[in-house]
Amino acid sequence: MESVISIQQLSKTYASGHSALREINLEIRRGEIFALLGPNGAGKTTLISIVCGIVNPGSGQVLVAGHDIVRDYRASRSEIGLVPQELVNDVFETVWATVRFSRGLFGKKPDPAYLEQLLKDLSLWDKRDAKLIELSGGMKRRVMIAKALSHEPSILFLDEPTAGVDVELRRDMWAMVRRLRERGVTIILTTHYIEEAEEMADRIGVIRQGQLILVEDKHTLMQRLGRKELLLQLKQPLAAVPASLAAYQLELLDDGHALRYAYDTQQEQTGIAELLAALASAGIEFKDLKSSESSLEEIFVNLVRNRA
């Protein structure tokens, strides 16, 4: 699949000596939703800011839709819409004037019909004549999204877009993201709500201390690094796990009323059949069992912890 953003050997060290990014190599495909995850201070915002032309790169090369972000700044920037973490607006302007002005900044011809539909999609049309100072925090966030999309970019960056916003806006935003992806817009997001990345993203990147430690298709990542668990509810409680079952590394839960068995999804043999036979041999009966698998959050936490 064609890359819309190509990052090669990108590094950034600030004058203070802090190394924010170290030799980042990343290809982002046209039309995908790419989630960039990492702890606070990992380099997520620095990476986005460099691609968007807000922060100068230290070394390396970044191409946006084939345009070098340094040599062809205007062309590359026109392809990008950015929703930053911080709310930055002229609070005394109206919603309509703000969005129309943002479109004009990129040299786009006026298109009232497009802007009207954009505001309607974001539930802002009824607020079009309101000044930004009069809006709630959630409504101001919607205006930031409208500004980012005003010039019809092919790439949209969402930097912690739902931090501190209401549930309704979060739901509306992800519905809009899905529509944009259907139209071929590439979306790159950072988020602390890992369940959103799990639901929305096509691929996941994990960054830690300025280094990209993993890039993987979401489903492949969860299959490769995830673990499944089998929880057995026992008919009679156990005081301890019998020595004959030690090989299965069972965990006794719920005051002895349940056993948990973890297994690797990548192994050809899960050991479940052998475990059930061993339980029967030990005279242990269960009344219910259910399986579960690791969430993306658990995988992410383990990745960051293991690389520490």
Automatic annotation (TrEMBL):
GO function terms (MF aspect): ATP binding; ATP hydrolysis activity
Keywords: ATP-binding, Nucleotide-binding, Transport
Top-level lineage group: Bacteria
One Pfam family here: ABC_tran
Domain ABC transporter, first and last residues per copy: 5-234
InterPro entries: AAA+_ATPase (IPR003593), ABC_transporter-like_ATP-bd (IPR003439), ABC_transporter-like_CS (IPR017871), ABC_transporter_ATP-binding (IPR050763), P-loop_NTPase (IPR027417)
Annotated signal sequence range: none
The name this protein goes by in its record: ABC-2 type transport system ATP-binding protein
Organism from which the protein derives: Pseudomonas fluvialis
